[in-house]
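request received
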Amino acid sequence: MAQRFLILEDGSAYPGIGFGAGATTTGEIVFNTSMLGYQEIITNQIYHNQLIVFSQPIVGSIGIAHDGYESILPTTKGVVVRDVTAISKNRQRSLSLDKFLKQHNIPGISGIDTRHLIRKLQQTGTIKGSIVDVADDHAFDQLHATVLTNQQVAQVATPRPYPNPNQGYNVVVIDFGLKHGILRQLSKRDCNVTVLPWQATAQDIINLDPDGVILSTGPGSPLDLPQSVLEMIQTIQQRMPLFAIGLGHELFALANGSEVSPLKLAHHGANHPIRKIITNEIIYAMEGQEFVVNPDSVNRDRLITTYVDLIDGSIQGLRHRDYPAFSVQFFPDGAPGPNDSVDLFDEFMEIMGTRE
Amino acid sequence: MDNTIQKILIIGGGPTEVGHETELDAACLQVIQAFKKLGIRPLLIDNNPFSAALESVQPTNMFIQAITVENVQRIIEREQPDAILPTVGGVLAISVIQELQENGVLADNGVQTLGIPSDALMDINNPDRLNRILSEAGAPVIATETVGTLDEAVNVAAQIGYPVIVKPIAPRIDTNRILCDNEAELISAVTRGFAWSRFKQCVIEQSIVGYKEVELVSIRDVMGTQVLVAGLENIDPIGIHSGDSMVVTPTLTLSNAEYQELRDAAFAINNQFNFTGVVHTHFALHASQDRFYVTKVTPYNDRGTSLAAVATGYPIAYVAANLYLNQKITDVRLPEIYHFKQTALLEPSLDHVVVRIPIWPFEDIPNADQHLGTVMKSVGSTIGVGRSMEEAILKALRSSQFSPQDELPSMSDLSDTQIISQLIHPLSSRILVLIEALRRGYQVDELNELTKIDPFYFVKLNHILTIEEQIRQQPMDVTALQQGRYYGFGDGMIARIWHTDIDTVRALGQSNHILPTYKGIEPSAGELLHSPTSYYSTFEFENESEQISDQSVLVLGRGGNQLGPNASADYFTTEMLKQLRKSGYKTIIMNTNPNAGSLSATASDKQIIDPVQLGDIMNVIEIEHPVKIFVPGNRHYLTRELRNRHYPVSVLPPDQEKRTHLETNHAEIGLDLFVTPGHIVPILVSDLQSDQGLATTLDQITLMRAPASIDETQLNRLLAHAKEYLAEHKRTGMVQLLYTNDTTNQLQFAGIRPTRLTTIAYLNKVTGINWVRMLVRQALGEIREDLIATLPVDIHSTRRSQVRGTFPFKQLQLPDQLGLTTQEVGARISFESLPELIDEPDNK
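response:
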């Protein structure tokens, strides 16, 4: 294993040991404070264009598991850790995290003072970084010159519809960079799922005559997606039950006249208490967000705030006053993270059931 | 919050024994702090002379009595508390409160139990009832059957098929489970189990030996809000008591799905029972079959909750105390040291690894069976904190050894047959044998097969060996030193591998900027910026620990609990810290015992959780530049080495170096004194005895009783002799003069020794003067001679009191034997404040 470097936009360079692919990549640096589920995190498409810094000190300790995929083709730009362990637990004993990352051309770097990085990011806000072989001027020039795409959704979402047949409710899932946890939860509830590409129009959806629609999670900024997506949401929410998660939640808010703005620093972790306003219950859920709904912009005639993060005060859930439509910023499917809010899927089933 | 509760009776932990040490008292202290802040009057019953919690309540609220149903009942009837707290007193408290519930005392006196609802109290240590409730909560449990006779037991076991597990119902002690491979073992286990059970009943269940043991520590409030504080993973599988297993937090070999399933189960159980406060839930996981069982539910403070608190920086006992009073967790206000809002609500996220390794009593009790099994044998534990598994495990190992020179014992003498045998039937040297097996080339899969330990841990141990080899191959190599330190090797270890001295190693590190970086132990994994009080070292990029003050003192904790004087060391250390702070110093403690009260965040200004070894101490000194370094008790090697390097070291009590001067090796009368340059303060004269009567050697003296059986004339003669002796032989601090009582009833001088730590704790309780604080003030030069003269000590007092050491023989399944001072696991104290001197009944 060779020495490689993590370099940051602010000119700092951290030596570490390369693992995974030997590629040189650039992306935004985000950190995740979850203590579990490195595989789920790495395969989550929300990390497209990003380098993930893990606060969990050791990754790789349980290998790669068949039920730990949140996407089959992960597109994160890199994995930054303190320590990586080569363990394989699949039947062939042949798929370690290192090997998995090699297969997907994702570089990793270990031996990094990740706690320092996380503390530093509090000061700098989200910045770009690269995993490189040599931390010379050329590498920094490349880093500064790299313009990250804002077409993340188009790059990770399915280009074509596909079904996940079952006997229950007909659910259309709009894929903005779908994490499989959503499909798993629908599958557990016997839903007959059709996944549609993110550009699907309201008419495409209506043609399938679903019982309900889910707007999926996904990477990047909701502000970079075309107006047509918001129009689709505006039409669909009037016609059928709608449940929006993550990026879907941000789009749902935009479609209903709220503003969404970037956080100074992305938040990824599963340990913030979240208050469910209607019951005053406190739950925990995986949050992974770079954007947040601006509370002052929420049109109270149309939307009700349903969940709020008690640490940073961010809006974590919305519900439409007139339509059977609701959304959450966090990931109720866990994977990784607590199952405290998994009943939102049951609620969605109920709403579909009460529909005339 | 519940305002009807004004007065709460707390059941203390009682004397330290195998099964619990200082963690109960540490939790108790935090609970008392929280209660006081809420304006509640805490009453405390405990007969542990080493209780720091006892020092924190008013004398009128303090009941130094054995924790028995009768004593607690008497206090309830007289004091009429509004509530009783069963959650800081271990199993004994649960058992006593159960009985008081059964006999109607609680109901008759309108006393409610806090934390554990009455129904739940009857269920949690009755495996049969527990299983029923767990099933109702949807949690998977192992099928069990209750038996009341040997015949029944034999039949049930034959039906289930061996191996089976035997668990006593409502035991008086922390017994856990007994594994039986055949009928003979079953009969022995059930017989013992019946004796331990209050109902003379046992439960027989199918064995799940070899499953992975995982524990979750959670918090729940009256609204049903729950916080998962930590997951603890036992490295050793089920079959070895979790108190004797190496434990890791956070869990490292569980998938998200597995972990969340356990979390859901723990929360469901807490809801089903309606617990408030802290709950420690134990699970058994099948390694590959996606199956788990709930094995134990302990809704009270124990070694698991204290490990979780120290590892995460989450103040569990303090938060729980608020929740017992039906306060909502969102309303809990924490002490100021917790800088950010909502600390109580943040589910701790760790960016470090903590490994706990047990400490054994076998060095002092060599005739005990050292095999590990389902009955706990360790008397203490020590933790290592690091940024990698290697670092955490090496630090824990370094702290768990008795060698002061920071070296690990070699297992190279074992034959291959012995290695195999010990892999299958582990001894207390478990971890060292695992390492030795790897050294000899055993494969990870093979070892996993033999030991049922997850392969991950062998991969990590193997890596330690690789690093060690790298160090060996490259003497005085900078990279080797960097790697060694990065992965947790101590300077002492590296010096030994290189056949050089520690200063050479340190100089190499210094000149190449391989310097320690301290990292905060806090529950946000660096996400929420603030300065925690607790730190550990590693060798990375950023150091977070700055010099706390130019008027700081460093106190070297005693590390893990061991037999002998160490039992009282944590009490001594805690009291020292209090006085040092009162005297205006910023206090820094180094310690590795997760159960230590002296490590709690409020006891000192900064806590460093690193091995208390020379290299690590010097690392701290180089940042903090303390004006003084205090060593409670004595650690000769460390003290000498630190002094050689001209550090300002004070040993307390002082004059340990002068050691003992003896005319003869036995004594019957002890005279304890506090000595200053201008005064000699006689504190107590007492009879010295062994646990079984007359002590023929000094190390048999484990019982002190006052007043001594001498008359006034003899006492005056002793005092005169003491004065004369000390005029000639200069001493400072606290000393005990020893006398023998010969056949003609003539007292003969037998010698002089520094007062033992255990004795000082007793003297504090007898005189109401805190002698530890006096010693600290003396060492700081704060004592005014004129005030010494006015100390209200009455050497002629006729108040009857007694302290006697307790021994772990029964728990180690040894026949009763004459206990030595080096074998004391704890002590109990009693006073004649009641009609007669009530001693604790022996119910082990």
